[in-house]
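2024-03-11 09:14:02 INFO worker-7 job=invfold-0412 stage=load source=structure_tokens
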């Protein structure tokens, strides 16, 4: 549903763009805004000019104030980390053959996910502005666990064994923006507050008939989460490409957040081999509400095309950019939980270690919006 809403936003904005005539408002409007960045300032009328040079430098002129808003659709490859690892092995030495397999799964999503971002801002003077931003990511990946390096499965088994990884993250920002024009470059510096939430977990499930007469049902889980608030800061550059409506831009943002983390490792299962009694076990280890920190780094590099609209005094933009994000949680360790033993000819060993992780995101963002 989030993706559907973003597509509708893009279609509506692009419909407005189709009506645009770049020359009609080029003289009437200030230069267009760069997506979630304020537009360049223009000369104000004499009635609202700043009285002194120092006032103009510190505060700026309010004559060119305006609003801007936009939405972005991000398609990102997610590499999340629970901070732990899940291992599982089976070995059946029943004659006349031998069946064995060993898994070591790094625990975390390794797949593509899609996330929306929206922002709303106000340029209060030609020097200062404010804006709010919201972004949310959700992804799930189901796959076979990774074979332990240096091992090769032997023989045949019939159990169903798979891993389901999940990740959720969101950020909400409120920033003050300082704008400077240096030659053909527009430079923005920004600082503000951010609240962020992150969680990722892995669940390995093995069930069914491993080999004839041997039945397994084992669940191994680990995960971590963080919720906290702190400061976000960064800057952006923007420059017009020749005398066209095309602009190149780049931005970098860092965040240092303080908050609390949760982490856990869990194992439970049962192995049955008639006529022996089943082998059953369960264990959980967790650390909740631990004081922790989260560091986030974001980078965008891309191009933007701007149009002046025909029916309303506003600019519309369309942008495409490469995006990189890194998230890293730092806090106290947790431990892990295991289950295993030998029942007849079947031996199983498993362990779910816990810790604190993070994620790395890389991909493309496509955005559109208005400045008016």
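2024-03-11 09:14:09 INFO worker-7 stage=emit residues=372
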């Amino acid at each position: 549903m989030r993706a559907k809403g973003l597509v509708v936003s893009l279609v509506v904005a692009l419909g407005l763009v189709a009506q645009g005539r770049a020359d009609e408002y080029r003289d009437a409007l200030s230069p267009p805004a760069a997506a979630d960045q304020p537009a360049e300032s223009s000369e104000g009328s004499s009635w609202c000019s700043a009285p002194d040079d120092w006032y103009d430098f510190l505060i700026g002129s309010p004559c060119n104030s305006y609003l801007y808003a936009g939405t972005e659709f991000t398609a990102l490859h997610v590499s999340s980390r629970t901070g732990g690892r899940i291992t599982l092995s089976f070995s059946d030495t029943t004659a006349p053959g031998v069946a064995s397999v060993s898994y070591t799964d790094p625990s975390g999503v390794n797949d593509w996910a899609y996330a929306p971002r929206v922002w709303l801002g106000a340029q209060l003077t030609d020097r200062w502005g404010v804006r709010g931003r919201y972004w949310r990511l959700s992804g799930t990946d189901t796959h076979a666990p990774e074979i332990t390096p240096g091992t090769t499965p032997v023989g045949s088994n019939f159990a169903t064994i798979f891993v389901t990884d999940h990740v959720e993250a969101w950020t909400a920002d409120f920033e003050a923006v300082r704008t400077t024009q240096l030659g053909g470059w527009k430079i923005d510096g920004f600082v503000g507050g951010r609240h962020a939430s992150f969680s990722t977990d892995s669940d390995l499930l093995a069930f069914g008939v491993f080999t004839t007469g041997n039945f397994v049902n084992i669940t191994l889980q680990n995960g971590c989460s963080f919720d906290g608030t702190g400061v976000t800061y960064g800057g952006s550059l923007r420059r017009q490409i020749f005398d066209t409506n095309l602009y190149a831009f780049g931005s970098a943002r860092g965040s240092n957040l303080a908050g609390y983390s949760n982490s856990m490792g869990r194992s439970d299962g049962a192995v049955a081999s008639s006529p022996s009694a089943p082998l059953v076990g369960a264990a959980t280890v967790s650390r909740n509400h631990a004081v922790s920190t989260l560091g986030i780094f974001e980078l965008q590099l891309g191009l933007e095309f701007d149009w002046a609209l025909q029916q309303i005094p506003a600019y519309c933009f369309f942008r495409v950019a490469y995006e990189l994000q890194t998230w890293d949680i730092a806090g106290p360790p947790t431990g892990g939980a295991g289950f295993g033993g030998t029942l007849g000819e079947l031996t199983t060993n498993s362990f779910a270690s816990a810790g604190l992780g993070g994620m790395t995101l890389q991909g493309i963002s496509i955005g559109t919006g208005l400045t008016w």
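2024-03-11 09:14:09 INFO worker-7 stage=report msg="The chain has two helices and 14 strands."
2024-03-11 09:14:10 INFO worker-7 job finished
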